[in-house]
Amino acid sequence: MRTCLLAFVLAASAASAAAKTEILWDRYGVAHIFAADRESMFYAEGWAQAQAQGNLLLRLYGESRGRAAEYWGASHLALDRWLQLNGVPERAKTWYEAQDPEFRKYLDAFARGINDYAQAHPDSIAPESRVVLPVSGLDVVEHTLRAVHYMYMGSMERAERESKAYLKGRPVSQIWREDPDAVPGSNTWTIGPSHSASGNAMLIINPHLNWGDTFYRYMEVHLVGPGYDLYGAPQIGFPTPVVGFNPHAGWGRTVNTIDTVDFYALKVKGGQYEFDGALRDFERQTKTLKIKQADGSFKEERLEIRRSVQGPVVFDQQGATIAMRVAGLDRPKMLEQWFRMGEATNLDQFKDALRMGCVPMWNANYADAQGHIMLVFNGLVPRRKTGDQAYWAGVVPGDTSKTMWDGYLSFDELPKSIDPKAGFNQNTNEPPWWTTLPPLDASKYPPYVAPLKMGNTLFRTKRSLHMITEQPKISYETLLANKLSTRVELADAVLPDLFKAAEGSSDPAVKEAAAVLAQWDRATDINSRGAVLFRIFADQYFGTNGDIDERLRVKFDPAYPVQSAYGLADSARALEALAKAAAECRKTYGSLDVQWGQVNRFAAGTADVPGDGGPGRLGVFRTITYSKKVGDRYYAASGETFVCAIEFAAAQRAQCALSYGNSSQPGSVHQEDQLPLMMEKRLHPVWRERAEIERNLEKRETF
Predict the structure, then answer these.
(1) What's the CATH code of the domain at 302?
(2) CB-based contacts of 465: which residues, under 8 Å, 6+ apart?
(3) Exposure winner among 99, 251, 326, 410, fewest CB in 10 A?
(4) Cα 269 to Cα 280: distance, rounded to the nearest angstrom
(5) Which residues are catalytic?
(6) 46-74 confidence digits (pLDDT tens)
(7) DSSP secondary structure string for all residues of 67-103
(8) How confident is the model at residue 169 (pLDDT cuts 50, 70, 90)?
């Protein structure tokens, strides 16, 4: 009897231990969550995000409520107006209520984890952030709605830019066509068995987003629960990773050239607007916004809102009244779709997740242990009645139903490449036609789906295709080396012509500059000498926002993307640009061969170190945008963020890095502890199994 009782007690104790949820924090600050059930997994992730990102997370949630000015003053008022104008708080409530009941429990659990951490560790949360507490599952939905639909897609900056371009008579003003280094971008590769040295599929995850404390910031996490084992990265405040991989499958994403937001010029007469030959009343609403004053008191502002059939009026100046229509507002299960994508272990399951059609944008580049690869120009492409992509990129007439859309192309109608003969898929934010080789046939799709030209992604795409095709088989080691390559594709394309032109020049400055470029390794490594001079030359010759292809001797050929696009169309102009670049470089830095890392820097936490990588516009695959200028130095503002290289072998091989570290909390070592990896062009090992995590353990928490 005693033996049976002892056995029962031991079994109960083991079951109790097994039912515990743990967060194992590794030495890079990665939270490995082992949960007894999925609800507990979400709870622990909320706890972990509050611990590593608490101040940023609460600020983002406060902003997403459309009440940031009420919490923190008038500097936040413009964002409040934007979110309230677009009805984000009201729509978030509708979305929250529309969630599957089980998944809504997960969202609530995530919020509960945030609240419980803040209550247990009040000193870790900044006093100005505590005003947002407590948070709820509604905040989770509200923040993701704001971040995706009204920051990535329909931002107030985009609305103003499009509207002002319309006033100036410009037909097209898409930001990725003007300055791709100013917006989020990414690279992604998948290698199929026929192109893989090991016969295993491989994946590169490589988003390029803003550094610093913004809604773009990622956190590296590992979520393990019943039927779930995903290593990936959510953006702060998101409860689900938006890129990642499990033991069987994974995906990367890139910002695609999808058009999910349209702007409509309304004809206003006597306070009404014209539509299909008749005058209609605007739907009107008034909201009151609170604004905190320096003395703690509050002022109020009335916000008058007008809505047409297309959507709210977002611009009304100089006789132009413009309304905005955003895709996906009728698809509330975006977070659940990402969760299902992370749960998928084979191609059919991943396709089923994409068919939910709730994630409104981003290419999805998938690979799995069965050897399948697939890249989908994923998102919600409005089913339009007329026009090509260039037409819809500008402001369109709002007085006719001919420009109204209702519904989207289905998953099966989207451009995609599944297990291509070339054995690879790739994307560097260019249109989907060059996903693989030979290129996809754009004529099979409606002309409004995507542009037919690469624009300023040309040389990053060319670099990607160059590396991915230069060997018949790619090993995992080559995959890593290619991912971390800082070679400047534009330099390879134009320096031969520049050197030839310089030979005939009598200008000593041109001769000296050409000699420096001849000795340059054509990379943007920390110690590269000549890269700074070349960047200044490229800006002088090509301009900073112009179409590079226009000033090449051999233009880009869509059928031969690797072999075309090279040379200099105007040798005289090139020599003049080189002379100016030499003068500027010498004046600013004292020499023409200044080291790249002396000028271009990484900074996070207390660290300020030499940087490598460079602008995607110049064809650098290891993309870093150095645009924060301090004195004569430039600091990384965006680019390499969460980077992973995965081989889906029997024993999975995976390495990752999060450039700016896995914490934004003041004083955390994990604000800067991954910068040495950046400097050394390395990634850290991914620890999936409990035993290897235990060997690299920093801290354990048990619930």
Answers:
(1) 2.30.120.10
(2) 426, 434, 437, 561, 562
(3) 410
(4) 10
(5) 186, 208, 640
(6) 999 999 999 999 999 999 999 999 999 99
(7) -HHHHH-GGGHHHHHHHHHTTHHHHHHHHHHHS-HHH
(8) confident
